[in-house]
Write a structure and sequence with these properties.
6-stranded parallel β-sheet; alpha/beta; 5 helices
Length: 140
């Protein structure tokens, strides 16, 4: 399952995401991963949550990002939830077409690995493609 937290930059998506990940870690049996563009929020995360700083990896495209994500999941089959802050930035998604392709692949990965993705997306709900509108859980 893919869940989206949408809203323009500065609306509080990251705070909501951090609160959700810190709450969810207490409810899951497996591992939780938080992917961000930097380590700025490292000390706001529960110590059981694995932080991945995408700035440490030479990823340059959406396909490379999705391959990287599959690799992360293949190394730990115990991962239940993956939180993606600044999704458009870390995944190199620039257009609605790329967003649709990424959503389709994430849905496929969810089904294959039984993992839930929670994405922070810096766009208003009305500006997202149709494939994303049913996945929005919070619109700020």
């Amino acid at each position: 399952m893919v869940e989206i937290i949408s809203g323009e930059k500065g609306k509080g998506k990251t705070k909501y995401l951090l609160d959700k990940v810190n709450s969810d870690i207490k409810k899951v049996d497996g591992s939780v991963v938080y992917i961000d563009k930097n380590t700025k929020h490292m000390y706001e995360l529960d110590s059981k949550i694995r932080l991945i700083n995408m700035g440490d990896y030479p990823i340059d495209s959406t396909d490379e990002f999705l391959g990287f994500l599959s690799g992360v999941l293949s190394q730990n089959t115990d991962i239940q939830e993956v939180f993606l802050d600044s999704f458009l930035t870390v995944s190199y998604v620039d257009t609605n077409d790329e967003f649709t392709v990424a959503m389709n692949k994430l849905d496929k990965i969810c089904n294959l690995y039984d993992v839930k993705f929670v994405l922070s997306v810096s766009k208003n709900e009305k500006d997202l493609p149709e494939c994303a509108k049913g996945k929005i859980v919070v619109s700020l």
